[in-house]
Amino acid sequence: MASADQLKALLQSHLEGDENRFYSVAMQVAAHEAKRGHGKLAEELRALVDQAKSRRSVVPGGMPDSKAVPISKPRGELANLLSVSYPKSRLGNMVLNNELALQLERIILEQRHAAEILSHGLSPRRKLLLVGPPGTGKTMTASVLAGELGLPLFQVRLDGLITKFMGETAAKLRQIFDSTHHARGVYFFDEFDAIGSQRGLANDVGEVRRILNSFLQMIEQDDSHSLIIGATNHPDILDNALFRRFDDLLHYELPDEVNIGSVLKSRLSRLAVKNTSWKRLAAKALGLSYAELTRAADEVLKTALIKRTEKISEKDISQALEERRWLSKRLNKSS
Q1: Do 99 and 87 touch, CB atoms closer than 8 A?
Q2: Domains of the chain and CATH, by start
Q3: Nearest residue to 293 (alpha-carbon basis) of 334, 269, 261
Q4: Rounded to an integer, what distance in angstroms lies between the CA atom of residue 77 and that of residue 171?
Q5: Entry's CDD domains (predicted)?
Q6: 3-state SS assignment for residue 286
């Protein structure tokens, strides 16, 4: 017989629409029954869970049924604050250094075993701060975590959140944090320094401080099962109090030559001529971000498609990388 805690966890996860947690607790019940010698019952429970997973409701177009998440699409005022998507990205789609890969694997593992962790009075990591230069994979990380965990990705729209009226931004923040309880998902605050520093409302330092204090209080009190992710290119201007409110800090860096070669090879090797030196190309591309490398590779592919070229040369790739580097310098100067 399932324990009282397991029964409560099953009911709570069902009421919250938290499918992953529901299945996790159900499998714990099955394991518990197996240990008690109830092998047939345990096998029947596992079969039911597997059957339920295989029948996860999907509406035409491959979108998850809204029944899986109480608020699968933000409505009313929330529609101006959150945009929702259902990423299919996986961790294997990213090129990461070992340290960052291990951090993300640990976060995913803890989330998948959240019910077990919570049942022992512990908390899985779910409040994350991502810091690093533009184009290094911070936004992709939010998509990957949502994809790996089967959760919707709610991206906070700063244009709808940040206003010039006293108290209004804090009230909108409250709506977002209320949503984390009603709709489990990955809540992504990009350009987080707009909230966590004086860059957001430079004309009213007092209001900026009120917004920051509100966020600090809300994230500290948040006990939902959603993931809350902040991403910034400017960690140096964040308020120090913010760092203590997050469970994990993930550092993103520009790719080294090994990772550059991996990105270029994964996207272009199918069409590249045999004598292409990925090491030589990587040395030339040092200093470019993952996003810039991807754009350069896409330019090569588009040019080959337009010209109906079956093979691309190392010179073609090198030229695209140089153009991207030149454009990147121009953009940085203008900003």
Answers
A1: no
A2: 4-56 (no CATH), 66-251 (3.40.50.300), 257-334 (1.10.8.60)
A3: 261
A4: 11
A5: RecA-like_protease (cd19481)
A6: coil
